[in-house]
Amino acid sequence: MKNKKLKILFWFLAVLPFLISAGFYSRLPARVVTHFNASGTPNGYSSRAVAAFGLPVFYLAVVLLLVVMMKIDPKNKNIERSPQLKAAVLWGVVLILNLVHIVTMLNAVKIRVSINIMLGIAVGLLFIFIGNYLPKCKPNYTMGIRLPWTLYDEENWRKTHRFAGPLWIIGGVLIALSSFLAFTWVVVALVVSGLLCAAPAVYSYLLFRREQGNKP
Fold this sequence. Notes:
By secondary structure, the chain is mainly alpha-helical.
């Protein structure tokens, strides 16, 4: 029963941006800011209809794609054996998309909310939650550090994810804190994200090379 209620709540949140838009629609201007630069300054606009209902369609498509990818993953059973990480990814994505949409609607009706701070903290928290559960992630093709070497060797996968977990937690903290640095937070987030992908990849490859070197 509990899982069923959580699923209902999840899909309610997935379609919630449509309801949010319906509530704001009569107050929206003809042109709505739908993109901000690194300093939080508006630099992209959409029509009222596109902002109100086109964006929620895109958000829902992202969620559906992610759910379908997990469902058809050849190693779906391993995804189900990693329930905490699966939940962190799915709930993290749907909550961030709702946050982005709420901030977009609020700014459109002249209620100023910093997209940088809100998004930076949210993304940072997502990295922290994912990092916390990465060491428990089982081999699959949708979540985790998916490389030829990790997918080739389950022990390589295990060691790489144990290595990556603490790094992602530290990286998430840095990204969250950087959101208060105005225009520099996006740069920090991009650099940190790159390092969080590159470091485990290098570590995994070195493990693979060492293992190959030990073979007779």
